[in-house]
Predict the 3D structure of the following.
Amino acid sequence: MTMLDTVMALAAQTTLSAGGGGNTAVQEALYLSNLASKVTVVHRRDRFRAEPILQDRLLAKPNVEVIWNHVIDEVIGEQEPRKSVTGIRIREVNTDDVKELSTHGLFVAIGHDPATALFRGQLDMDDAAYIKVRSWSMKTTVPGVLAAGDVIDSVFRQAITAAGMGSMAALEAEKFLAEHSPDPAVRPIVPHETEMVGA
């Protein structure tokens, strides 16, 4: 959503705050730093969990400020003449000291955990618990079991790509059911070469 909002110019040339410290938060802060005059990253710990190369890129940006060991307690805004964010209230996690920061926008990155615990030990998964599927397919290591969307996508994690995967999975499921149907009339027709008329 960060990308969609900024493409629509809702966040260009302004001061923005981004919360979080994993890959998603750091990538979004990097993206925002190319569009906003200043980006402030508020992180609840004293270090990021993101990959080192992403951290190095973010910390090298002159228009990015990181506020460590803080959490966002409240979003401050106005109702009139139009609803808008004007600031945030942040709290230091060790001392409970509170301060306010002015900002024109807020992006919260909460990270992503695939909901795959139910399938552990039954389907092959990678180290981050995403289900493994075949290349250009939604087929898992178990025949007839397909996976799509957030449980396999550790890269994009977007609704639009998940919808495409869902369509692929539905087509593959339909084909699998037809191939394994006890009724021969339901089985798929095997395509054959058509004859060219006049050849």
About this structure: The radius of gyration is 24 Å.
